[in-house]
Design brief:
By secondary structure, this protein is an alpha+beta fold. The chain has helices spanning about 15-20, 30, 115-125, 125-150, 155-170, 180-190, 195-205, 220-225, and strands at about 1-5, 35-40, 45, 55-60, 65-70, 75-80, 85, 100-105, 105-110, 170, 175, 210, 215-220.
């Protein structure tokens, strides 16, 4: 990993918490304190249990966040892209990161230190309120995911994941714009790699999806949605 300077004011990530609040005069004193970090594909920039080093905002790239489960297996808990926030689960609690994070492709990150973030929260109520709503939304998503795992079978969980990444990253030339191994799909869907492969193969035979290497393209969004309609999670 290396540092690279990018300017918040010329950033195109309108979804980023920092970018959304650049119109406030107080923000100018804080954006100059950030660090930019460049990660190569597969680089780990957050280690689960490590001391908190502030929040990361994705300037460019894609990231997976993971949490260690039973028998030391890493479970993917979130996939993120440009403008998303990383490391917020540990912020303001035990001063340690509750997740690990890896770059899924070459990625540029903006890091705001603990001290800088606390100063922003204390001095800019609009930012604090927006972050509070973000936490509430993430809590709701986490609760839904718990129910999902309890009530969905393996096929439904894989379908739910495919629809999620389709919404999150979109399709380019008929393929979802993210490279995920079959193991990563299994980790996020809460199943084994073998089961994930079988479901993907079945969906492909049914002509609901197509595959090109690691990439998957959804051919019949409505039919996949209908399979998990009763769960109301898509």
């Amino acid at each position: 990993m290396k540092e690279e300077q990018t300017a918040c004011y010329s950033c195109i990530n309108e979804n980023c918490f920092i970018k959304k609040h650049l119109h406030l005069e107080q923000m100018s004193q804080f954006v100059s304190k950030k660090q930019n970090i460049v990660c190569k594909k597969a680089d780990q920039f957050i280690t689960e249990g490590a001391p908190l080093q502030g929040l990361y905002f994705i300037c460019k790239g894609k990231v997976k966040t993971v949490k260690t489960g039973i028998n030391g297996r890493e479970q993917i808990v979130r996939l993120t892209k440009n403008g998303d926030t990383i490391g917020f689960r540990g912020f303001g609690t035990g001063k340690k990161y509750l997740i690990g994070a890896y770059a899924l492709e070459d990625t540029v990150l903006c890091n705001f230190s603990n001290e800088t973030m606390l100063d922003i929260l204390k001095q800019i109520p609009e930012f604090t309120y927006a972050l509070m709503l973000f936490y509430a939304e993430e809590l709701n998503k986490s609760e839904n995911n718990i129910r999902k795992i309890a009530h969905m079978n393996v096929r439904e969980r894989v379908i739910d994941l495919l629809l999620y990444i389709h919404r999150k990253f979109g399709q380019i030339n008929g393929l979802i714009d993210i490279d995920l191994s079959r193991k990563e799909i299994a980790d996020f869907a809460g199943t084994t790699e073998e089961q994930a492969i079988r479901v993907i193969s079945s969906l492909k035979k049914e002509e609901l999806i197509k595959t090109v290497g690691k990439r998957i393209g959804i051919l019949e969004v409505s039919e996949l949605r209908s399979e998990i309609m009763e769960h109301k999670y898509f």
